[in-house]
Amino acid sequence: MIFKKAFTVIGASILFAAAAFSQTATIPFTIQAADGPVTINIPTDLAPLINQNKAQIEQALKNNNITASKIEGNSGYEGQILKVYDDYKTKFPELTSPFEDTVGNLNNFCDDLVDVIPNTQGIQNIYADAWIGKLIPSAHFGAGINAGASSIDVSALKKTAQAMDIDTKDIPDTLGFPTITADLRIGGILLPFDIGVAVMKFDSSKASAVEKAIDPMNFDYCVFGGDFRYALLKGGMFKPKVSIGAGYYYTKGSVGVSNDQASASLNFTSEAYILEAQASYKLLFLIPFVGTKLLYSKTNVDWSVDARWDQIFESSASSYAEMLSTGFLPSHFSGESNGTALHPQVFGGVGFDFLIMSATVCASYDIKTKVISGAASARISW
To answer: pLDDT band at 274, cuts 50/70/90?
Structure first.
């Protein structure tokens, strides 16, 4: 998988990314203030970040008429940068690197989403029968609800939240990323094929039980897609059904964590192109099945952070308010992670056929990312 990571910061993002060391190593750095160049000592580990954003920082200083005397010395921004180190160490003694615990972990969680979202698409609209039969003249169809989840590691997002003083200790490190879809499948005409479609929109804030369980996290998404399956073996007395097929699914949504003083949100879109093969066999009212899928996914994740650092550090110092107003202490920054990948999957389960009602329980495993998923469905079928 190829990931492209980028982040942008507003103004002098050096203050947010300050590393929490008990003894801070510094390096001389020259920057253009509103009235000319000034050399200050900055934390060594921040030098690459400051150099990357030097043009933005200097423009902010010029726009806000920040002079050299305001920047240098213990009473200036130079001293405030080092004070933020001490404040951070005092506030978060268990954290070692704010940059890693914020921007780095957000990018890590983006990578987790890039792996997981395609797996939520792969467990949708699975029918136990490898082929449900013809629409004409047999009138075979099915419609119902499919609910599933894929395992996702949220520890990186929790570390980001912790770095902004958002309490997530009651949330486990691994959650099930849910997907709930309404689906419809109809048999083919003349030829032995069937077509399935699925669609759903979900918002955790609209479901009180879910909202309470994951607070202060939240998520929402919408999904639609479908597939086409062609029967190589139609099945019959003591004969299995075997089909091959192709599908497409699109998912758009967001994941976030927030409180009154800070928030981190990630918006994602994902497309999955699917090739599949499935075999099933009916034993009275039971239909065991196995199959394999190959997903080609394209996933984009954009993240953003908003933070009120004066409230997080519980400081009434005028320097905090001033640096917030000038952009020297950034309250908003953002980044992105993009990925394309092939996901080989195996899946299987069992279906239950009760006259016009049917149910399916299945599980899948992504061989590459090792993501485990599961789903259950209840349908009216004929």
So the answer is: very high
The model's pLDDT over 244-269, given as tens digits with 9 standing for 90+, comes to 999 999 999 999 999 888 898 999 99
Exposed/middle/buried for 100, CB within 10 Å: 0-12, 13-18, 19+?
middle
Q: Pick from 3, 122, 138, 38: which is nearest to 362 by CA?
A: 122
256 closest CA partner among 306, 312, 183, 321: 306
Whether the pTM exceeds 0.85: the reply is: no
Q: Using an 8 Å Cβ cutoff, are 197 and 184 in contact?
A: yes
The tokens for 64 are 């806000």
Going by C-alpha positions, the residue among 166, 84, 180, 80 that lies closest to residue 123 is 180
The type of residue at 186 is: I
Question: What gap in Å lies between CA 342 and CA 270, rounded to an integer?
Answer: 13
Instruction: Tell me the C-alpha distance between 369 and 153, whole Å.
Output: 12
**Of the candidates 184, 212, 186, 217, the residue with the CA atom closest to the CA atom of residue 200:** 184
